[in-house]
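Revision sheet: structure tokens.
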Amino acid sequence: MSIRTKCALLLIAFEATLAGTILFTLFYTTVYFGNAADSFSVSRVRVEEIGRLRSAVQNEKTRLFAADDSKHTQDELANSQREISRLVANLGAAMKNDERSALESLNQRRRQSVQFARKREADDRAHSGNAGIYHEFDQFLAALESKTWESVRLA
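Predicted:
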């Protein structure tokens, strides 16, 4: 075999190795950034859901502690409760077990607080006792939102 043939074979092997390296690099880069983009997208949607839930809980709190006990306010409160239940179910489906159980526990306590507040007389102690669960719920959601923003930042 001549030197020219040997050099040609070495050049072909080098070009094949270089082409393979470039293709694998492109493939793994695409997969890596695709996963990061998916993670970012899912986290962004989760942050939006948490924001909607926080707003719905705040609206319910405002309606619940309003002095107006009209039929219109009661209907808005019932709609708010349905919306919160829907948002909790949606958000809980995408959460880890410990976070989901904490969210469901807080939601259950919130529902009990609403039932108690609807039956109560206009009593300041009832207001302050029921307001605590809303503060606790909001603190939990704020921590969850912060944690989700951190995962968005990492993505």
